[in-house]
Amino acid sequence: MNAPEPPLAALAELTHRCPLQCPYCSNPLELERAAGELDTETWCRVIREIADLGALQIHFSGGEPLVRKDLERLVEEARDAGLYANLITSAVLLTEDRLQALVAAGIDHVQVSFQDSEAVGGDRIGGYRGAHEKKIDAARRVRAAGLPVTLNMVVHRQNLHHLEAMFDMAVELDAHRIEIAHVQYYGWAYENRAALLPTRAQLDRSIEVVDAARERYKGRFAIDYVVPDYYARRPKACMGGWGRRFLNVSPSGKVLPCHAAETITGLAFDTVLERSLEDIWESSEAFLRFRGTDWMPEPCRSCERRELDWGGCRCQAFAITGNAADTDPACELSPHHQVMLDLAKSETGEAPPDFVYRNYGNKPDRAKTATPAVLTADRPAE
Amino acid sequence: MSQLVTISADSVPRLPPGVKLRFDKRRDSWIVLAPERLFVPDPIALEVIKRCDGAASVSAIVDDLAKTFDADRAVIEKDVNALLQDLADKGVMTA
């Protein structure tokens, strides 16, 4: 097999520790503890390997990347390696001192997550009292520091009615970009699906609102909109194809083709402690397993869209059918497509259940309470 | 950034904060890097973007391109305006 093209971007998930407890978190159910995280020196080496491999952008994420005291050092390493450095943060820990240190280290862009357009919903969904106010303040300070800011809005059944107000926030905060992404249902979000999945009517309405906003704000800020798969007819080109454009390094150094890949049980992931990043990208079992089109079953194998959508999402196929090598059931040509439609119909019919908040003590198989463990935590839950 | 940018002959275009033009040795290609996106400018766009240094006006850029490529100034002016306005609308150029 020929060497694959180099990746375009890498997501560095520095930690799973986070002061927030969003019930749709994309981190795995089995959260990594601080003791299992890579040290500064190893991260610096990994960052250089990411650049050497040919990636152009690095996204510092988590958990909450600001929990790591060495974030500024890592950003500096990325800048020196020639990478475009992006910070994806909940921003509640973004003090002015750290912001200035990040600017000095060479951060290029900051994405601030919001859980809603207003504090009541935002603080409830994130499971952190006062979070919304801190985020607003942080986003303003990021702009004042001369950095471009993206507002990251994860939308679902319980905040989608505030979509217009989210665009107003982008104007108010002088954002360069707003990302409206429907929850993707893996891991924590899969457990909370009945509380989060919008109705078909809500989805249709949201598409109208986004279309109107694109028209109204053309040339003022960029809008990216990600729809939920449960009402799709064709799957998304998840990650631009498995192992084609993107890699993810987990807090403990596992290299994943996407941030949700660990939900696929039975797939083994190599770590940067044992193999070089280049070696993992080019020839590790996990990356080879679904790269390209050779692994595809019918109807993908003969489909004219096979190199457009790359068979959709492996994690979703696994979550719904139990087999990661099945066609993504979001595709209407999948024999399992009806299962998804039925799930969507049955779960959006009644009042949403309580959230299972994402934290170290709340693994869904044990979680019986929806009460956030530490609603007023000012330091990251561990 | 949420102000509309309108490109005219007197505009002095530049890449906004968070947008970078860099040469990628691995791919042997110039690439524009922006928040959550990147693109490879075609040869003409590259010549224009390289000249957007925050000092030269659109009109000076057009003069320079017409001279360098020995081309009809009016045609170049029209193309450059359209290109810069398109880039500005996408948030990867400001003035």
Describe the protein.
The complex is a heterodimer of chains A (382) and B (95). Chain A is an alpha/beta fold and 382 residues long. Helix content of chain A is 33%, strand content 12%. Chain A has 14 helices and 9 strands. Chain A is globular. Residues 366-382 of chain A have low confidence and may be disordered. The mean pLDDT of chain B is 92. With 95 residues, chain B is an alpha+beta fold. In chain B, α2 (58-68) packs across α3 (73-89). The chains are: A alpha/beta (382), B alpha+beta (95).
Greatest interface: A-B, 29 and 22 residues
Which residue ranges of chain B are poorly predicted, with pLDDT under 50 across at least 5 consecutive positions?
none
Mean pLDDT of chain B: 92
- Give the percentage of residues in beta strands of chain B: 5-15%
Number of strands of chain B: 3
Structural key phrases:
A: alpha/beta; disordered C terminus; B: alpha+beta; Arc Repressor Mutant, subunit A; 15% strand; globular
Question: Quick gist of this model?
Answer:
By secondary structure, chain A is α/β, with parallel strands linked by helices. Chain A is built from 14 helices and 9 strands. Chain B has a single domain (20-89), classed as Arc Repressor Mutant, subunit A, CATH 1.10.10.
